[in-house]
Amino acid sequence: MKKALIATGGGDCPGLNAVIRAIVKRAEVAGNWEVHGSIEAFNGALRDPREIMKLNDDNVGGIHAKGGTILKTTNKGGPFSWPVQKDDGSWDTVDRSDDLVKFLNDEGYDAVINIGGDGSQRISQALFEKGVNIIGVPKTIDNDLSCTDYTFGFQTAVDIATDAVDKLVTTAESHHRLMILEVMGRGAGWIALHAAIAGGAEVCLIPEIPYDVNKVVERLNKRYNEGKGFAIIVIAEGAKAKDGTVVSRKSDETGYSNPRLGGIAYQLSEELKNAGFKNDIREMVLGHLQRGGTPIAFDRILATQFGVKAMEMAMEGDFGKMVSFLDNEITSVSLKTATKGQNLVDPESFLVNTAKGVGISFGD
Ligand code: F6P
User: Fold this and answer.
1) Catalytic residues
2) pTM of the predicted model over 0.85
């Protein structure tokens, strides 16, 4: 029997379980592969005792409909930056990638499939450079990975954000309020842009188009002056004013290096009041609800295709690549290319043009 090890890294995302299930099912159809899962990204392979789970039809049956990941995940550290506590109590990181390579060789793994976002795929590329037979599977609700048109989890997040807009309209309309909905996405405005169009917002503020608050007030006043006594703004957590900065804070969690975004909705609310907007405003930060619950059918299907493709690449010995969805086809790209850039909203794209065409202001 040949052996594959799979891991899920970074933030959880609807569809992770569907990928795991598809890999295991495809391996069972092939008949000559067994699949193991490392618990909590590659931590399970590095811990003593090891935390490795044998995966089969019994433990992956029905998981495609569940959010999260049965293998658990982490976005702290990794094999190249393993957190260790020093004698004085402070924390440092050490490179344990050689330990991981040794474990994979000793245990006779023929292939590794790493399901994760940009950070995880950079780890995949670095492991590939160390000789690991690795394949990446892109995941994130942010849809910000380059070389793939979509990542699974994104459409589920968009659905949740759109549902939130629909619900906020009820209160906005009844109270003549402006409701500001803040959605996730880090440096990418994809969730905000899609939810603003699908939900029919008046204003959409995204990181790719820094906003002028006076332009936003202009658009809102026009709306109120037309007799429509309420309005909706969808703002991405990474958005910023033309002369402003992204609202973020440093996490004090050990090994967590990303800035924690969130709170721009409250700042925008103040900016609007200072710029003379007179109507009542309420703010809502949607947060992790966007990553929770069951994946929608689109994401289950995309995740299943990614899982089958990754397993087939393992069977063919096609390593150092990331599975991707490009121009309506499931294909693959080199990890090196895939980890170079980011997929951001193009301000000149037809989607932004569409939003502007139905009267959505970006404050530009
Ligand atoms: O990358 C996915 C994401 O949900 C971002 O949209 C968000 O900024 C971040 O992860 C939140 O991370 P955490 O779950 O660590 O707070």
Assistant:
1) 142
2) yes
